[in-house]
Design a protein that fits this description.
about 350 residues; mainly alpha; Peroxidase, domain 1; two-stranded antiparallel ribbon; 2 strands
């Protein structure tokens, strides 16, 4: 136990040191991509798992993954889903698990054919070099939350699948739609295969609509999918000391759940519904966060068509969101078997 705590402390000290550089601070303020860091993410998992080995050093993890070229096993992925559900019930970490899956997949570049150079959902976010990207600030906490689950099935579930499984399960357990997921993603084997920094969206660019299109079009996503995916901001909250955005505390966040504080986009920020669109449209409350990229959804004429629709029709939002989330989760992935597999077959 002492060795495990020491290893965790060393990891956090290294991350803090990296975050202290001027370039990292600037990137962290400007770039919080899909979800700013969640306060709930600092809680350690308290799920009923079998005793698991200490997290391996990064080099050892790379060697282990290189030795295990096979993708995940369907029965074990189903078992891991139950472990994730228990983790969600005990830690309220839905937002950061969604963000973990999205940020692993969101580096995809449709103009690059080779794997893993094209980025995407390949498990590269487990390596320190990518965790230290400004847009990924705080995601080391998400990795620590699910590492015991990975250790429970060390050679049977890939990180790439686990990240996407956690993200989809978090949406569903928060009351969102069933995501038509498939699994069998293959992991990259080392940090040299991580994508360069700067692939994820900024929260406050000078031209928000143009920036969203530049980033998401590069992934092969369209305007409808951009707006639908933005609706996942119905979950979570932002802390100004971490992201540079939001209030330190509001009437909706001062009592948690999880660590109190931050500013949420919606009143019930652990429930997945269409409140995000309704609240932006109605400008109902100064205690609710609206980033420049959020406001752009109702200011840009093409985005507004979908934002207005989702504010009025939650069923339509759920349908479009489920399709867009599944598409995002597959971007850049290499599957084994090539067609992947479903947990519902």
């Amino acid at each position: 136990m002492a060795e495990r705590l020491a290893a965790s402390a060393a990891t956090l000290r290294a991350s803090a040191a990296a975050a202290a550089t001027p370039s990292a601070r600037r990137a962290a303020r400007a770039s919080r991509a899909f979800f700013p860091p969640s306060p709930a993410s600092s809680a350690r998992a308290r799920v009923g798992l079998r005793a698991a080995p200490s997290p391996l050093p990064q080099k050892a993890r790379a060697v282990r993954c290189a030795a295990v070229a096979a993708a995940s096993d369907v029965a074990q992925v189903k078992a891991a889903r139950e472990d994730i559900r228990e983790l969600l019930r005990t830690t309220h970490c839905h937002p950061i698990l969604v963000r973990l899956g999205w940020h692993d997949a969101g580096t995809y570049d449709k103009n690059i054919e080779e794997w893993p150079q094209r980025g995407g959902a390949n498990g590269s976010l487990r390596f320190d070099v990518e965790l230290k990207h400004g847009a990924n600030a705080g995601l080391i906490n998400a990795l620590k939350l699910i590492q015991p689950i990975k250790d429970k099935y060390p050679s049977i579930i890939t990180y790439a699948d686990l990240f996407q499984l956690a993200s989809a399960t978090a949406i569903e357990e928060a009351g969102g739609p069933k995501i038509p997921m498939k699994y069998g993603r293959v992991d990259v084997t080392g940090p040299e295969q991580c994508p360069p920094e700067g692939k994820l969206p900024d929260a406050g660019p000078s031209s928000p609509a143009d920036h969203l299109r530049e980033v998401f079009y590069r992934m092969g996503l369209d305007d409808k999918e951009i707006v639908a995916l933005s609706g996942a901001h119905t979950l979570g909250r932002s802390r100004p000391e971490r992201s540079g955005w939001g209030k330190p505390e509001t009437k909706y966040t001062k009592n948690g759940p999880g660590a109190p504080g931050g500013q949420s986009w919606t009143v019930e920020w652990l429930r997945f519904d269409n409140s995000y669109f309704k609240d932006i449209k109605e400008k109902r409350d100064q205690d609710l966060l609206v980033l420049p990229t959020d406001a752009a959804l109702f200011e840009d004429p093409k985005f507004k068509v979908y934002a207005e629709k989702y504010a009025e029709d939650q069923d339509a939002f759920f349908r479009d969101y489920a399709e867009a989330h599944a598409k995002l989760s597959n971007l850049g992935a290499k599957f084994q078997p090539p067609q992947g597999f479903s947990l519902d077959d």
